[in-house]
């Protein structure tokens, strides 16, 4: 065990060349989509990079909710909305595969 005098150094420097403004969109039912718009340190939009879209939903289980999240390969919010169901189904399939995986594996 590390002594109190030994401290782990974590790089907490903000990458000024990789900043995003985040906006959230939801249907208040199942879908949450985060649009990450690239920005420069002065908050102007960085047109040299494309926006990113992240889909999120929750899967209710007997043990409680499980958060599912996936990068949506989309260039627009409309495209992200179209790709959301398939991306979330893929994440559900991954979770179900883990649940059904035998302990020996």
Kindly summarize this structure in a few lines.
This protein has 105 residues and is α+β, with helices and mostly antiparallel strands. It has one helix at 77-100; strands at 19-26, 32-39, 52-61, 64-72.
- Which regions contain 5 or more consecutive residues with pLDDT less than 50? none
Number of helices: 1
The whole-number mean of residue pLDDT values reads 91
Which strands sit side by side, in order, in the main sheet?
1-2-3-4
Anisotropy-based shape? flat
Structural class: alpha+beta
Provide the helix percentage: 10-25%
Q: What is the CA-based Rg, rounded?
A: 19 Å
Number of domains: 1
Topology as a string of helices (H) and strands (E): EEEEH
Question: What summary fits the major beta sheet?
Answer: 4 strands, antiparallel
Strand tally: 4
How far is the first residue's CA from the last residue's CA?
Answer: 31 Å
**Into which percentage range does the β-strand content fall?**
25-35%
Please explain how this structure is put together:
Helices cover 23% and strands 33% of the residues. The protein contains one helix and four strands; from the N terminus they run E-E-E-E-H. It has one helix at residues 77-100; strands at residues 19-26, 32-39, 52-61, 64-72. It has a four-stranded antiparallel β-sheet. The protein is flat, with a radius of gyration of 19 Å. The chain starts with 18 loop residues before the first strand and ends in a 5-residue tail after the last helix.
């Amino acid at each position: 065990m590390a002594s109190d005098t030994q401290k782990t150094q974590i790089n907490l420097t903000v990458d000024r060349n990789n900043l995003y403004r985040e906006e959230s969109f939801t249907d208040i039912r199942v879908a949450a989509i985060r649009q990450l718009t690239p920005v420069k340190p002065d908050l102007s939009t960085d047109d040299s990079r494309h926006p990113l879209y992240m889909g999120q939903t929750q899967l209710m289980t007997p043990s409680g909710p499980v958060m599912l999240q996936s990068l949506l390969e989309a260039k627009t919010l409309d495209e992200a909305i179209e790709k959301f169901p398939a991306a979330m189904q893929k994440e559900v399939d991954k979770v179900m595969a883990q649940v059904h995986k035998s302990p020996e594996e």
